[in-house]
Amino acid sequence: MQVYADNAATTKMSPAAIAAMTPCFDIFYGNPSSLHSVGQAAKEKLEDARSRIAGCLGCEPREIYFTSGGSEADNQAILSAARLGERKGKKHIISTAFEHHAVLHTLERLKKEGFEITLLDVRQGHNVTAQQVRDAIREDTCLVTTMYANNEIGSVLPIAEIGAVCKAAGVPFHTDAVQAVGHLPIDVKAQNIDMLSLSGHKFHGPKGVGALYCRRGFPLVNIIEGGAQERGKRAGTENLPAICGMAAALEEACAHMDENAAKVTAMRDRLIEGLSKIPHSALNGDPVNRLPGNVSFCFEGIEGESLLLLLDMKGVCASSGSACTSGSLDPSHVLLAIGRVHDVAHGSLRLSLCEYNTDEEIDHILAVVPEVVEYLRNMSPVWRDLMTGKRQFIL
Ligand SMILES: *Cc1c(COP(=O)(O)O)cnc(C)c1O
User: Fold this and answer.
1) What pTM was computed for the model?
2) Calpha distance 278→303 (Å, rounded)
3) Cβ contacts of residue 51 below 8 Å, gap of 6+?
4) Relative to the CA of 236, which of 110, 338, 340, 368 has its CA 20 to 30 Å away?
5) Catalytic: 324?
6) What would the pLDDT profile of 344-390 be if each residue is shown by its tens digit?
7) Whole-number Å distance between alpha carbons of 31 and 42
């Protein structure tokens, strides 16, 4: 049995999304900017995809700008608000300590340019409150950017409340909703969201495509120059196959949102209940306001990387939830942000589910994870020190 439980990293494409893409390769292959009929047929497909996506978010089609993914949308949204702020002499930005690196690294770049960045503390309840945002807003705040839901630990933020706080204070509000779109109901107008980032491959659409919703009237700046595509705000020939695949995937996800969420939440809760029985373990993330598919744990006395390798050998594809790229041994900034100490943060496991997972797969995970954790603990010197009292348990 092979179980794919890494849907927060990326998802399998849905058959409907694949079916929506194929005619774009050989029938609607025109350049949407061409004035002839082949180009105009492609243009029609493009605008149809835009309307479908707008319909899922509760905005107007002209408020949707296609990008190469969630990262680009995050960069463009944050830089746009920063440039507007600069012109008004406002150079303070509020965000959270557990954002995706697409947000955090863009903020670091702005910090080098003289912006002041406040990262809200997420240790309390592994989440932020609208009150924290209210307390952090200053005269010179030009942007609040908080994620909609965390990709590592699954916490869902109080977006409507944060949106209301920002609206009342007259501060632009951007949300990286890459983990939420297609999974949670979103209404950008009701939630007072000025800008929102989404990515196709997190809801069974293709990779390399995403979108930025930007409220009409908010001045977007280009980060890619070159042509008049996307109302002059994002140059480059549109990736029509991917855009059509993304629109089909999103419509499908939104049409089945409630039933998918019910199914995935039930599997998630069974996993959380089962894995909580492992001694010296702790659930990461908000236990109540939580993504339907997210299960994130720390197990004391083990290395997350060894756990992943052994799980893979037993047919479970998971993630440590750490941004442990290029062999860096730094634990996840998200786990450190919620207050996990280095040793504990290293023993992390993220299982992220989708509606394609089955109860049999959950049984398999529940059989395999406790076994592998015990096996690793039995050969861990850290675990021996914990058991002999040379080292104190934290969890
Ligand atoms: C995946 C992800 C991104 C990046 O999206 P890409 O389309 O892969 O660039 C940004 N933010 C969050 C929260 C994500 O989960």
Assistant:
1) 0.97
2) 15
3) 61
4) 110
5) yes
6) 999 999 999 999 999 999 999 999 999 999 999 999 999 999 999 99
7) 6
